[in-house]
Amino acid sequence: MMKRFFAALMLVFLAVAPAAMAEGPVLMMATTTSTDNTGLLDYLSPEFKNDTGVELRWTATGTGKALKMGENCDVDLLMVHAPAAEKAFTEAGFGMDRKEIMFNDFVIIGPEADPAGIKGKSVAESLKTVMEKKAVFVSRGDNSGTHKKELSLWKAAEIAVPEKEEWYVQDRAGNAGQHQHCRRERRLYHDRPGNLYQIRSQCRRKSCVENPGGRG
């Protein structure tokens, strides 16, 4: 019986192995939802395969989860946006060859009516105003790069993160698109990353505060 089991197992292995080998080399990557939402990877991946013969596959998640996937050796490559966390990741021996290839501009976006009156203020003033008026603020709350940046902004404004306040909502969507939808549906303030076109487009339509030097 045991011999038949090993023989069957070997046959299964021999049947599967050629198919796996025929599939060709694959590069596994973890990246952020904001990068995935741009469509850039969908455009670049076939070009990359044509040039190298290697298929690029990726998982889109928050930076924190992406770094954890790297620690666990679940992926070969990371494309994330939290410089301090990236440097700590590399210094701990989990990664190598860190390179900065793009940047995010971080902005605080709110309803067009701007009930808290943050338009025209600095980021620090805006956060203080939101806190004083208890205007509902939506945080990613998921240890993503955007969430890490938001926490650094509260710190720079010398305000303790108001995580226990009722007006401070942590949606933990784990997705930049879902997070924006939540904020838009509820007409709230939030912090988000985006490329220059998205920032300028939204600043024309909504109350918007850009973070000078706030690239990450």
Task: Describe the protein in words.
The chain is of the alpha/beta class and 216 residues long. The chain folds into 2 domains: 2-91, Periplasmic binding protein-like II (D-Maltodextrin-Binding Protein, domain 2, 3-Layer(aba) Sandwich), CATH 3.40.190; 105-215, D-Maltodextrin-Binding Protein, domain 2, CATH 3.40.190. Helices cover 48% and strands 20% of the residues. The chain contains 9 helices and 8 strands. The chain has helices spanning 2-23, 33-38, 40-52, 63-71, 83-91, 123-133, 145-156, 176-186, 196-205; strands spanning 26-32, 55-61, 77-79, 105-110, 137-139, 168-170, 189-194, 207-215. The strands form 2 sheets. Strands 6-5-7-4-8 form a 5-stranded mixed β-sheet, with helices on both faces. The chain has a 3-stranded parallel β-sheet with strand order 2-1-3. The longest helix is centred in the N-terminal third of the chain and has 22 residues, at 2-23. The radius of gyration is 22 Å and the shape is elongated.
